Amino acid sequence: MKFFLDTANIDEIREANATGLLDGVTTNPSLIKKAGREFFEVIKEIASEVDGPVSAETVAHDHETMLKEGLKCAKIADNIAVKVPLTIEGLKTCKALRAEGIMVNVTLCFTANQALLAAKAGATFISPFVGRHDDVGFNGMELIDDIRTIYDNYQFDTQILVASVRHPAHILESARIGADVATFPIDVLRKLFNHPLTANGLAAFDKDWAATGFSIL
Ligand code: E4P
């Protein structure tokens, strides 16, 4: 399963990249606002920092303007995935961008039928939002399970990019289901490494090793 970082903050991206486990980055207009930097400048810097796909989101609602935005975003770097919303206009744009060989991430997916539409439009990635689904009383992971079944039934190669991830249990369940990618904030990445028994075990080994007086180097 690929790990993407859900941020437009370059320091967080560098921290994640240093682990050697980062496969890409997703951004959205809210994350751009939070980063407080000019859109093209920050996307260009992220795309040069990361080898994998970097999602840059369009903001127009009509196909014609969205396509112009998408084509402009795609010119920033070869690893840009243009993000479009799961609307009729967004999927028209998805199809047109894919015809140009541009990666497309279809975002704001909340049903398996929407994911089916995105796959038929040739999306590179579909982004179902599990956390926001949980927030309103649904089980976000059931959505991922349904999409996996549907994509496998028809051998769609659209990658399931689990988005709106809130905690490590979302990652675990995504991996169990066989999602292709999960995108999550830096605090979730940090939590994936942590376990109190790992920390306690390390402290005990340190203490015993110090008592031996030996040295490896
Ligand atoms: C990713 O592509 C989405 O924009 C993001 O995961 C949304 O997450 P949120 O629900 O935490 O805003």
In a few lines, what is going on in this structure?
This protein is an alpha/beta fold and 217 residues long. It has helices at residues 10-18, 29-35, 39-49, 63-74, 88-99, 112-120, 130-135, 140-153, 168-177, 186-193, 196-212; strands spanning 2-6, 24-26, 54-57, 80-85, 103-109, 125-128, 159-162, 181-184.
**Strand proportion:** 15-25%
Helix fraction by DSSP (H/I, runs of at least 4) = 40-55%
- The overall pLDDT, averaged over residues, is 98
Number of strands: 8
Largest sheet: 8 strands, parallel, barrel
Low-pLDDT parts are none
Tell me the radius of gyration. Answer: 19 Å
Written as H for each helix and E for each strand, in order along the chain, the element string is EHEHHEHEHEHEHHEHEHH
What is the straight-line distance between the termini? 36 Å
Structural class by helix and strand composition: alpha/beta
Which cofactors or ions or other ligands sit in this model? Answer: erythose-4-phosphate
Number of helices: 11
Structure commentary:
The protein is α/β, with parallel strands linked by helices and 217 residues long. It is 53% helix and 17% strand. It contains eleven helices and eight strands. It has an eight-stranded parallel barrel with strand order 1-2-3-4-5-6-7-8, surrounded by seven helices. Helix 6 links the parallel strand 5 (103-109) and strand 6 (125-128). Erythose-4-phosphate is lined by residues 6, 26, 28, 107, 127, 129, 131-132, 163-164, 183. Erythose-4-phosphate (E4P) is lined by residues 6, 26, 28, 107, 127, 129, 131-132, 163-164, 183.
